[in-house]
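Pilot study result, target chain (95 residues):
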Amino acid sequence: MLNKDEVQKLFNKERILVGNIDVIPKYAAKKIFGNEACDFASRLNRGNSSLYGIGDFSLEYLTYNGFQTAATFQNIKEAKEIVEGLECCESKKEA
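Predicted structure:
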């Protein structure tokens, strides 16, 4: 799981300029957090992602807020797996 500083460092490492803001290409964010987290960030808030086109190609990207949302999704997913694992172990002890 990542904290805010770690997410900021990842963003700073992978960011590119699109228009007048730094963003993360969605393909790069998916390598870090996976499809599910990035798609969740895009669906949750329209301001989390967008497209920038140059005619025959459009690049889908996540804003910094979208990148943080994807990181949060992944953190919660990992925490869920830990909690479910603990619950599984506790129910085996009770049996």
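One observation from the pilot: DSSP finds four helices and four strands in the chain. A full batch analysis is planned for the follow-on phase.
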